[in-house]
Amino acid sequence: MPLASLTRYRIGGPAERFARFASPLELAGGLEPLEGSTYRVLGWGANVLVSDRGVREPIISLSGEFDHLQISADVVDAGGAAGLPALVGDARREGRVGWDFLEAVPGTVGGGLRMNAGSAEIGLWDRVVWAEAMTPSGDRVRIQPDEAAPGYRSIQVPEQWVFIGARFAAPLGEPIAVNALHAERRRLKVEAQVYELPSCGSIWKNPGPPHGSAWEVVDRVGMRGAVRGGAQITEKHSNFIANVGDATAADVIGLMAETRRRVLEAEGIELEPEIRLWGFEPEDLSSVGAAP
Ligand SMILES: Cc1cc2nc3c(=O)[nH]c(=O)nc-3n(C[C@H](O)[C@H](O)[C@H](O)COP(=O)(O)OP(=O)(O)OC[C@H]3O[C@@H](n4cnc5c(N)ncnc54)[C@H](O)[C@@H]3O)c2cc1C
Question: Which of 41, 61, 234 gets mutated to test ligand 1 (max ligand atoms within 8 A of its CB)?
Answer without folding.
Answer: 41
